[in-house]
Amino acid sequence: MDQSIQFDLDLIKRYDKSGPRYTSYPTALELHEGFGEAEYLQHIQKSNAAGGPLSLYFHIPFCDTVCFYCACNKIVTKNRSHAVPYLDNLCREVAMQGALFDNSRPVNQLHWGGGTPTFLNYQQMKRLMDTTREHFNLHDDDSGEYSIEVDPRETNDLTIAQLRELGFNRISLGLQDFDPDVQKAVNRLQSKEQTFAVLEAARKEGFRSTNIDLIYGLPLQTEQTFARTLEQVLAYAPDRFSIFNYAHMPSRFKTQRQINDADLPTPAVKLEILQMVGQKLTDAGYVYIGMDHFAKPDDELAVAQREGKLYRNFQGYSTHSDCDLVGLGVTSIGRVGDAYMQNYKELDEYDAAISQGKLPVFRGVDLDEDDKLRRAVITQLICHFELTFSKIETEFAINFAEYFASELENLSLMKADGLLDLDADGIQVSTAGRLLIRNICMVFDKYLAQKQQQFSKVI
C-alpha cells in the first residue's frame, strides 16, 4: 500500500472547513440522556453473548498545572490528596463493571489517559492496576497492548521502571513544542532534558512503542521554530508522532481564553508548518497513518494499515477492531455492542452514582442499522483511504449506488478536484486527498448539517 501524502495548498485552502475527527460514528454529540444504566446493561448482555476481547480506558483527570491550549476534561490542582477519593470511587467502578463482563474475555488493550495519569503516586497506580487484574482478565505475559500517557515533567527514571513493572508496554509523551516563547505563551515549561530522559528510560525499560505528541498552531509558532522542535525530536526517533492541529475554541474551553488571539499563527503560517511537518517526517522514513498520525514503517499501526486491519476508536487509531471498549472514570466514553455510552462529566455526579452503587453512565446512543452502515464506510475510509463497494453491499445487504446516490453525487465534485478516484467498484483516496480525509468522510455523515459549528477546522 502507498502510505505517502501530497501537499496541495490550493485543495487544502478550498476544503479547510469545520468537521469531526471521527473517533466514532455517530460522534459523541449524538449521545443523549435517554440512554442510561438500564440500556448499558442490555448492551453488556449482548456483548457477553457475542464474546471477544475487551479494551479498557481509564480517565485520570488531575493535572498539577494548566496548559492554556488544553481541551481535555481535567481537574487542575497541586493538592495530591484530591486523588484519594477519586481513586476509591474508580476502584469501586472497576469492581462493578468487572462483575458485569464475562471474566473469560481477555483484555487485549488498556489505556490510561487524562489529565496526567502519573499524578497518582506508585502505590495508587499499583492499587488501580491490582484492582483491574482482580476484576478483569488482564494478560500476564506482556502480550496485551497496555499504554499510558505521561507528562515528562511528572515522570522520572523510577516512575518509568514502575510503570513497566505494572504492565505498561507502550507510552505516549506530551511535548507540544520546545520553543521557550511558545511554552511560556501556553503555560507549559518543559525542557529537552526532561523529555528525552523519559524517552530513553522507556526504551531502557523495554517499552515496545514510544509516541511523541506535538501541536501546531499554538501562539508564537512559526515554521522555523516548529521545525527546530521537530528536528530535535527526530534525532531520538520515536516510533510514532501525533501532531495535532490546535483548535482555538475559547467559547467552549475556558483555559484557552488565557491565550492572546493576536499571537496565534495565521492560517497561512499553519499551512506552512503542516507542509514542513509532512516533508520532514516523510524524509525521515515515517509513513502517514492519517488524521495527524505518523509512524515508522514497521510500527504496528503502519503494518495494520497495509494489511487492512487498522481501526479507529475514542483513543485514536488502533489495531483492535474486535474489542468492545469499556470506559472507566469521570467523562470516559465506551463502545459496547452497538452502542456508545459516557460516564458523568462532573466529579460530584460521578461520586454520587458510585456511592449509591450505580454505574455512572449518564448518556449514550443506540446505533441503528443506518448508523452501523455509515460507521463501516467512514471507518474504512479514514483508516485505509479506500473503499470497495461490494464488501459493504455484502455485509449490509444494500445496493451501494442506490443507497448512497446523493453522497456519490457529492463525491463526484471531489473527484473532479483530485481528492479521490471514483468508479463503479469503489473509492480510492488520492495522495493529495489524504490530508482531507475528514472532508470525504463528512459526505457520509447524516448528522453533520446541524452540528458543523461545534467542530474544529479539518486543517
Characterise this structure.
The protein is of the alpha/beta class. The protein has 2 domains: 1-26 and 368-459, Arc Repressor Mutant, subunit A (Orthogonal Bundle), CATH 1.10.10; 28-326, Alpha-Beta Horseshoe (pyruvate-formate lyase- activating enzyme). Helix content is 38%, strand content 20%. The chain is built from 16 helices and 20 strands. The chain has helices at residues 9-15, 37-50, 83-100, 122-135, 157-166, 180-186, 192-204, 223-234, 267-283, 300-306, 347-355, 369-384, 389-396, 400-403, 405-417, 437-442, and strands spanning 54-60, 62-63, 75-76, 106-114, 137-138, 145-150, 170-176, 209-216, 240-245, 287-290, 293-295, 311-313, 316-318, 324-328, 333-336, 339-343, 361-366, 386-388, 420-422, 426-429. Strands 1, 4, 5, 6, 7, 8, 9, 10, 11 and 14 form a 10-stranded mixed β-sheet that branches. A 3-stranded antiparallel β-sheet has the order 15-16-17. A hairpin with a 2-residue loop joins strand 15 (333-336) and strand 16 (339-343). Helix 3 crosses helix 11 (347-355) and helix 4 runs parallel beside helix 5 (157-166). The chain starts with 8 loop residues before the first helix and ends in a 17-residue tail after the last helix. The model has no long low-confidence stretch (mean pLDDT 93). It is an enzyme of class 1 (oxidoreductase). Keywords: 4Fe-4S, Cytoplasm, Iron, Iron-sulfur, Metal-binding, Oxidoreductase, Porphyrin biosynthesis, S-adenosyl-L-methionine. Belongs to the anaerobic coproporphyrinogen-III oxidase family.
